[in-house]
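Q: Make up one entry.
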Amino acid sequence: MEALAEYHKFPQLSEHRVTFAEVYNMYSAEKFKKISQSNINNYKASYKCCEPLYDMRFTDIRLAHLQAIVDGCGKNYPSLTKIKILFNQLYDYAMQHDLCLKDYSEFVNIEQYRDEDKEEKHKIFTTEEIRTLWENADRSEDIRVILILICAGLRIGELLDLKKDAVSLDERIIRIKKGKNKQSIRIVPIANAVLPFWRDLMAKEGSFVIPNSRDKNRRMMYASYLNTYFLKSLTQIGINDHFPHDTRYTFVSAMTAAKIQPVLIKRIVGHKSRDITEKVYTHFEIQQMIEAVDTPDWKNPFFDAISV
């Protein structure tokens, strides 16, 4: 707080003097008043991994320094995600207070570690957790978005990239126009169970289904969605240790338990299959997919953890 007071006296000098640790202390003094103890613990654990940066002037820190923390801490992918969130939050705070001129956090690469933690990557929501989500759906749009993901099998990046002109509520379909491979470009059916939630999202301001909180015509960043909406809303209703990609595996597990044809599941989620040759959808095939996503009892999906 002393450093922030000094900044207000000498703004032209303070940006060269404030350290990483001081930015964290100023940020946490404000942030920790507004979040749960579990989230505070997550921030503190991530901060402990950043010890090499503590005494560095914030304006001297570059991408290489941040990446070195990620590469050298030995943490798994979920923990690396939290460290990157901390970087994002500190740079956002520093930019707001004119303590730095460029945000290097967005360039930190943790994707190379994603596949090293298969057990975490494939964790599905339990039946009890899904019931809890439905019981709290009326209280939070963020929870309704999680249910949308569970009932659609969308990648979180696909939902954040999704513009409203790619959604047809009358046809009950979503057109994914870009993705990480050819199979990702596809039509995704909208389950009737979450159709009202889609209507609410489409009625809101902005060109994106999930807009940036500051600019409704810009895409929301993954780190912002994860920390501010996904993790926070789950923690508030007592659900922990999940990440957005878990919704996708939950969808596949529920569809498999409902005995939907594997080739149909692969087509909906955009997985590669020898049985899928051309991306040409007939009205009959689209109707098949809509009926398929309406088959599971999404409010009470009894299934065991299925390897997907």
Q: What stands out?
A: Residues 116-120 have pLDDT under 50 and may be disordered. The two ends are 49 Å apart (CA to CA). The CA atoms of residues 24 and 280 lie 52 Å apart. The chain has two domains: 2-118, 127-293.
